Known about the structure:
By secondary structure, this protein is α+β, with helices and mostly antiparallel strands. It has helices at about 80-85, 90-100, 155-165, 175-205, 215-245, 255-320, 335-355, and strands at about 35-40, 45-50, 65-75, 105-110, 115-125, 130-140, 140-145.
Amino acid sequence: MRRKEGAHLHRHRHISNRHLSDKYYYAGEHETATDIRLTQYNQETLHTSEIKKDTASFKKLADPNKVNWFQVSGLTDSDTITRIVKDFGLHNLDAKDILTSQHVVKIEEYDSHILIILNSCYYDANMEMHSEHISLLVTGNVVITFTESNNPVFATTMKSLESDMLNLRKKGSGLLLAFLLNTIIANLVESVSKVEEMLEDIEETLLDIKNDQGNMGSMIQQRRHEYLIIRKNSQPLKEQFAKLLRNENGIITQDMLPVYTDLSDQLLFVIQTTESCREIISSLVDLYISNNDLRMNAIMKRLTIVSTLFIPLTFLVGVWGMNFKLMPELDWKYGYGIAWGVMLLTGLLTWIYMRRKDWF
């Protein structure tokens, strides 16, 4: 797994946010500058604007007659992130969770808030897996998304708003939250499906021992690493997701439950597929080791055959190489040719014998 901001991988690694404090800092690896966009919509209008970080009150920007979606990309400005969280009625420790990359997946429900902390993963065009810490905050008609980078993670959600899919612009913030979660879960589904597909390709290669299997070991390890990332991101989310299905603060209404149930089913598919991947990886490791043993046995078999062919020839050469004076073969006119004939005949007979015994 690689980060896009590869030149700055180690800048924040000394920050852990593990201790109680009045102020917390971004503890991830991305160096994306914090940027805020506000999308406000209702059934008739849809408008997006840039928001300055030095805004005195973000809460006052929310229109009570519309759904307000704050998109915060980049978590490096921890002061701004903390101000936003506090402005909408949450605690300083909630800001810590948002700023802590690879935080444990959790869904916190309050009287009028829902805070979701999770980690998303996806493949890019080069089939490299990327992981990103994402937080979702919902309160009333306000939805706030926090992402580590400025990658268009929720581009599909914006398209859904523009096309008013499933009457999205006629519903409240709970349906927007469902679309945002659907984008994240869809990435998990696509990622685990690709991992399973690549594992099946590796299996086909390993089953044909004639194929070049020189880098199969590293490929299996890479797929295993990606599988563990998906499992780490999806399994806790599935366990926490039940909280949304029994939400009692009114953000998720009864008419939205079928959408959330479908999301839960998708998560279940991810969990089941990860279990399948785990079994496949275990089988592939055994198959890879078995193939290595078979190739080693084949090499040793060929070397043994060659050695066996030359054992009687070595014996003959050793006998004729002794320096005894009374060796009549040395004085024969055709002794050299006869020696070659005997050695060739001996080698041929040895080869025929091994073939009849089906030794190779």
